[in-house]
Amino acid sequence: MSNVHPFPVWQRVGQVGFDRPELTRILDLYGRMVAAGLWRDYAIDLGRDAALFSAFRRTAERPEFRIEKRPALRHRQGEWALIGEAGTVLKRGHELGPVLAPVERRLLKVVGD
């Protein structure tokens, strides 16, 4: 009679992304930095190994900060990293909040003046 064929299962290409609470926290910080006049543009790069959020002072420059999520480092140094303009790792950790702390402190200094 009729043969039943299974629906082909596509292999998901491994892509790292931000969860909704993570992206909300990052975009909240971005919005406050824009309101303070420090950042003007951002870029999100989702790849196989890492997800990157880059914040720019001006569009044509290198990013002032990059927030990087690498799940492969979850059990070692921590999956989150804050990377400066020169490419140096400023902070690394297992949770997003403490990694964003140096940028938030900088925002408090600018607003407090």
From TrEMBL:
<dbReference type="InterPro" id="IPR021252">
    <property type="entry name" value="DUF2794"/>
</dbReference>
<protein>
    <submittedName>
        <fullName>DUF2794 domain-containing protein</fullName>
    </submittedName>
</protein>
<dbReference type="Pfam" id="PF10984">
    <property type="entry name" value="DUF2794"/>
</dbReference>
